[in-house]
Design goal:
14% strand, alpha/beta, transcription cis-regulatory region binding (chains A, B), homodimer, transcription regulation (chains A, B), 434 Repressor (Amino-terminal Domain), Rossmann fold, 335 residues, 4-stranded parallel beta sheet, Lambda_DNA-bd_dom_sf (chains A, B), HTH_LacI (chains A, B)
């Protein structure tokens, strides 16, 4: 396999000139730059990291597990991770688990069989006891969803309880009385798992309701995470004896589905029904009325998770174990 | 490395029982199933495909190049590709080129260095002469964007000219006179490339305008592909001496950006300005007014492209070279 030295010899320049050209640095004579590029092409020279990969020392590949890449929250988080990874010449294997515990375990094998250098869990369906043994095979970072105990694995997320508490207080202050709640559940083929993230959000909701002396009704609890789920939730709400006057959802997609159906049925928002989303996805300000929602700092979350991963791969001083980013409520016209 | 035989011996069952457990088949005694799982765990047994990978015969990995994973069109096409790939135990490396010709070439190295079994181009920035040599290293499939000549490489796309022709005729029939046009340009760091896809759409537009004896004005030509671009386009339009009464865009994101700004400026849609999107993304029916757009069959495109790839990898009879899927206009309330 040709080396920098071979390229330098063929191009008739110094080795440092070759490395300046490779790294796109300034102050290289244009003729020399051309000669180096030509020599690299003729020799079939591979930059260092590729050559290293061929020698099998590392894959420069990181697996990222998400439950649904078509959810704008996940495509944005993957985009942010990819941006940080690319700066250090790492690539991502996209692991779209579709909420399946089996698929999640299938992708964890990538770490065990050394097909990736590290693995980031942006979704998490299995119990931590099932995941934990894989930490023996390489670095794992957790982002967004999280377990109760992470055995030294870095976690990057938001304070879910606080975010939902603030959203609930916002509705209570506005005078809404019959507040419905939608748990952000990913229905797997086996059963619906209430993750710690979903539990914590629900706790924030219950705490605010309790403090205000408000009652919760079982019939006002819904499950869902997609646009279609939102549409169905509205249809269920219409049939209730005591109709909710507001609903808290776990995703802007669910909220958008509810709004679309409610408007189609002639309901006025927020007069007949107030709606709170979660995420602050790009469409939150495009729909009408603009959606009150919790802003998830998705860029920062994705970047921070990947930075933790790169720190682990460089075997530097260990990154912080738990990172809770701010997730403010953005009050708009749907409440 | 342990084999099925080792697992069978340790679990005290037959080899066929082990393989039935591995493939989740019915009619296996629950005790035996547990014994097999336990034996697999204790021996560190890897299912066949992983073991094959470790022997280096294949990577079971396919690279997919997209320009922006946060564009719902691309996340949907990747999702569809992933679904087909997963059925055959293939994984995707997500290659987010951000419209950079350099990044595109960087990812093509994955094929050359045998780090992936095949590569699908859902975005394409470089000239075909630059890409073509990589077909020596493994199968390539083209999807969405395409070159004028593809030298035997399968292409899956829609008839771009026809789609834009029909959208233009729709506006003309509605009586719009001053029709603006936005080219779906990905601005790279170097320059704005007008791809064959963008050229063909523009041809469809020009043909319909010519047939109707309508004039095109240079000042009514815009560039852009994102929500933000759409917002900026509206601001430019406002300043024109002859304001357009309709605009054709190359993406629902651009259309949504224009609608958001137009409404904020007090314009009535479609009375003051008619808007046509492209793609039929999920938010097209959520915004107000609902967006007239061209439905890109993104599920079918993604699936067909991956099926072509799997056929090439199986070295079966060659898949069809050019596939043009139907992309009907969906007339809604924005026109």
């Amino acid at each position: 396999m040709p080396t920098i030295k071979d390229v330098a010899l063929r191009a008739g320049v110094s080795r440092s000139t070759v490395s300046r050209v490779m790294n796109n640095q300034p102050y290289v004579d244009e003729e020399k730059r051309k000669a180096v590029k030509q020599a690299m092409k003729e020799l079939g020279y591979l930059p260092n990291s590729s050559a290293q990969r061929l020698r099998g020392t590392e894959t420069r590949t990181i697996a990222v597990l998400v439950s649904r890449i078509v959810n704008p929250f996940f495509s944005a988080i993957v985009d942010a991770m990819d941006e940080v990874a690319a700066e250090q010449s790492y690539r991502l294997i996209l692991c779209n688990t579709r909420g399946s515990a089996n698929q999640e375990l299938h992708f964890l094998q990538l770490l065990r069989t050394k097909q990736v250098d590290g693995l980031i869990l942006a979704s998490l369906v299995n119990d931590w006891e099932t995941i934990a043994p894989y930490t023996d095979y390489g670095p794992i970072v957790i982002c967004n969803e999280y377990p109760r105990q992470s055995d030294g694995v870095p976690v990057v997320t938001i304070d879910q309880s606080k975010a939902m508490y603030e959203a609930t207080v916002h509705l209570l202050k506005k005078g809404y009385k019959q507040i419905a709640y939608c748990n952000p559940i990913t229905k797997t083929e086996s059963d619906a798992v209430i993750s710690p993230l979903a539990q914590d959000r629900y706790l924030g909701f219950c705490q605010a309701m309790e403090e205000a002396g408000m009652h919760m009704y079982g019939e006002c609890l819904f499950l869902g995470h997609s646009l279609e789920d939102g549409r169905n939730i509205f249809k269920q709400m219409v049939c209730l004896a005591n109709r909710p006057d507001a609903i808290l959802t776990g995703s802007d997609e669910v909220a958008a589905g509810i709004i679309a159906e409610a408007k189609a049925a002639g309901w006025k928002i927020p007069d007949d029904l107030a709606i709170v989303g979660f995420d602050n996805q790009p469409h939150a300000t495009l729909i009408e009325p603009e959606l009150t929602t919790i802003h998830q700092p998705v860029q920062e979350m994705g970047r921070a998770a990947m930075e933790r991963m790169l720190a682990l791969l460089r075997k530097e001083s260990p990154p912080p174990l738990a990172t809770y980013l701010e997730a403010p409520l953005l009050a708009r016209k749907s409440t």
